[in-house]
Amino acid sequence: MRTRKTAGGVTVHAIAGTYVVMLGLDADAPAREGLLGFALERIDKTEGEQYWLTGMRTFKSVYPNPPQGALVSTHAHPIQDFLWSDFTAKPAHDYVYRVVPVRGKPKKLEYGVPVEVNVETERPGHATHSVYFNRGVIGSQAYAREFANKDPRDLKGAEQKRAYAWLSRGLFEAMRDFLRRATGPAYALRAAVYEFSYEPIIEEFHEALKRCKDVKLVYDARVKTTKGKPDPSEAKRVALTESLLKKHGLKSAAVATARTATPSAIAHNKFIVLLKDGHPEAVWTGSTNFTESGIFGQSNVGHVVEDPTVAAAYLAYWTRLHGNPEVPTLRGSNAAVNPDLANFPPPAGIRPIFSPRLHDAHGHTMLDWYAGAMDHARTLMCFTAAFGVNQLFLTVLKTPAQSKDDLRYLFLEKWGVNAKLAAATKADLEKNPHNQVAVGGYLAGDVLHEYLKDRWAVERSNPLSTNVRYTHTKYMLVDPLSDDPVVISGSANFSDASTVSNDENMLVVRGDTRVADIYLGEFMRLWRHYNYRTIVNAKADAVTGVEHGYEPNYLAEDGSWAADFFKKGTLKEQRRLTFR
Prior knowledge:
There is one protein chain. The protein is α+β, with helices and mostly antiparallel strands. It is built from 16 helices and 27 strands.
């Protein structure tokens, strides 16, 4: 939901998703006079709680040496920004946020007229779209505080259960509960899976089979060969899948079908269709592999669509996959029933896109359409990429816009899949200052000791994942704060292969502000988390210690901090105008 309130020259625009509430702030000239920042109070009407929210920055004259990882009240140390997010919100809660302008002196603060906004956070489950993001931040101050940076696999008993529940943040439970909707003989499940190794979920498939007697899977069993030799990592993955299918009673030909045709491609889907009395009712899709890493480690999303028409399209696609066709055949059959989108914006509502797909007469594919969607953003575009940025997108992103002031936020697993591509991508993105990039990372001990001087707690890497540790999501948001947002999300990595070769699926959702608010809140949660680490790690590579000019990032002790947010042409001004 979105709501806006003004009092005393200060405006608060609240955007609430499920676990995130963003507050876009603005202030007129009189309200900015002597402004030291904003104190933030949250009243939780659902749980009967009221308290001042916290941050990490302090006034040097008041609190020069806070201990490692300390949080301080914004009542005493106000935020100095015009965009702030509450990442501790809970779904389906009724909150009141009181934003209080703070003036005076750091040791004698004066509090102005509060702006109060009532916010109801969204429920993850919904009549049409249910959206579930895991936490995706093992390398974080919060995980360090909660679990002392221990590998969750090494924790014991109740503490391990608590850690996995914290990391899942409802994603595992939602996946499990979707499978449990198949309660008896009236129901059936059809799934297309890529990585399939998390045994509690595999066992849920087995239990569903016992209940409804009608569960069928298409699993990736493609193993490409090089010089006549099978790829060892792919062969190992397929062998693990097949051993677990056998272990959990799912290996019979009546249940599991191996996807083997055209072994140079991959069967990269992660979706489940729920049927009742032979009719498709809902589909589970998104970026989450059925693995421990996918559910609890790297950032992922599960997206349920309760729409018989959409579910029927997925079932028809599954049926095509079940025949194990070669890529050229599947391209043709997909094109016959699922043509490309021609123009932007797409039709209102929900449109699934299935791969592999044909090129058109001009050599274009849906990837060109996605790049065009990115270029159509008027104010804000958000994009995640786990395996680099495709050249079509770089062409859009590297060219400074001449007729619009859109912000482009990117959250990347890494700059590129190798050093050469990483350097080229970084150089291209830096040609346009509107590209604001966050790259996966964490605060390691050397950075903290030498650069941050132990003001933050040491973080750890994600031990549950190997190739992709930070983000595995594949989504794009086009003008998500408008009344007509476009959300694109699914299994495909916005790559050439994901469009023309691999088995993939995407959802294009236009005009649903609730879906956009949930995705935007989660995107900004992760972007802000990793953007700070991107900046700190880059600076730490160039400069170490106070002897080289470093000083902790204290709060300004006068109103000068706000000037850049009102300076024409600055990114801070643009961000304030976008979110206010």
